[in-house]
Write a structure and sequence with these properties.
- It comes from Pendulispora albinea.
- Interacts transiently with the RNA polymerase catalytic core formed by RpoA, RpoB, RpoC and RpoZ (2 alpha, 1 beta, 1 beta' and 1 omega subunit) to form the RNA polymerase holoenzyme that can initiate transcription.
- This is Sigma-70 family RNA polymerase sigma factor.
- This protein has 2 domains: about 160 residues, Butyryl-CoA Dehydrogenase, subunit A, domain 3 (Up-down Bundle), CATH 1.20.140; about 120 residues, Nuclear Transport Factor 2, Chain: A (Roll), CATH 3.10.450.50.
- About 5% of the residues have low confidence.
- It is an alpha+beta fold.
- A hairpin with a 2-residue loop joins strand 3 and strand 4.
- It is about 55% helix and about 15% strand.
Length: about 300
């Protein structure tokens, strides 16, 4: 680079790409913007003379900043008390944030953001950079301070955790996903007939006490009409719901802007949902294996 002005121009020209990288690593727009600010400070104080691929160099700097932030986040979580951890793992439903964050989270995939949050810092960086942005492993190795072979293993391990292994044949998974999609679509619109079409007549809805809002809902509700009527009252939550694999079976995650709120573990019998288990308790959430149903529709 010839001068600071040229570097600034390159940074601004790459800002959209760099912000997308940071958002997928960190999961929130405000953290992504903080990462870009720190990345600019590092870049502006570094010697960029002779760098041929400035966009790649800036991506590497953003990757290092995000890795530092993910490691700091992990340390902070480990230091939380049990009471504070309850709030972290199963937070109160947040108010709507900026519209651009909602749109960005939706475009990335709410379920994918939830699953990415279960990865270790180095795994998340390796997976995001390689699988989502095609960054070479040699460049990733420099960021995570490991060999290229080790960086490749990190990405492979993360990929396995993101996609998982379904506990049913592909045809059954596809059929179940269609049923769950129909259930969520009807839930969002408050479509009573649509809900009744996918709920078994004797469906059971169970829930953690902390998952229920107010005293109006029982820990267990039985019967298609009763469950459907209750579901219609939760349309505001349903708009943040997406299909996800829960312990290898198709279920759903409710994640406003990609931040985990509830998991719906579903039992499907035939073409109807027979059991809905609403999970909010942090101890139970930690025991779940969550994977995206597929990369494109997460």
């Amino acid at each position: 680079m010839e001068n600071q002005a040229a570097l600034a121009a390159h940074f601004e020209g790459s800002r959209s790409h760099l912000r997308a990288v940071a958002f997928r690593m960190l999961g929130t727009t405000h953290e992504a913007d903080d990462a870009l600010q720190e990345a600019w400070l590092r870049a502006s104080h570094a010697d960029s003379t002779g760098i041929a691929n400035v966009a790649g160099w800036l991506t590497t700097i953003v990757g290092r900043v995000c890795l530092d932030m993910l490691r700091s986040r992990k340390r902070a979580r480990e230091e939380l008390t049990e009471a504070t951890e309850l709030e972290r793992v199963a937070p109160q439903e947040p108010a709507l944030g900026p519209e651009d964050e909602a749109a960005l989270a939706n475009s990335v995939g709410l379920a994918l953001l939830v699953v990415l949050d279960t990865l270790g810092p180095a795994e998340r960086v390796a997976f995001v950079l390689h699988d989502l942005f095609a960054v070479p492993f040699d460049d990733i190795a420099a960021i995570v301070q490991r060999s290229a072979v080790a960086a490749k293993k990190l990405a492979s391990r993360a990929r396995h955790r993101v996609h998982g292994i379904p506990a049913a044949p592909a045809a059954d998974i596809a059929r179940h996903r269609a049923i769950v999609h129909a259930f969520l679509t009807a839930s969002r619109s408050g479509d009573l007939d649509g809900l009744l079409a996918v709920l078994a007549p004797d469906v059971v809805r169970r829930a953690d006490a902390s998952a229920l809002r107010g005293d109006a809902h029982a820990l267990e509700v039985r019967g298609a009409r009763e469950v459907a009527e209750e579901t219609r009252t939760n349309a505001d939550r349903a708009r943040f719901a997406r299909p996800i694999l829960v312990n290898g079976q198709v279920g759903a995650v409710i994640a406003p802007h990609g931040r985990l709120l509830l998991v719906l573990a579903l039992t499907i019998e035939g073409d109807r949902i027979a059991v809905i288990d609403v999970i909010h308790d942090p101890a139970r959430l930690r025991q779940l294996r969550l994977n995206v149903v597929d990369a494109k529709a997460a």
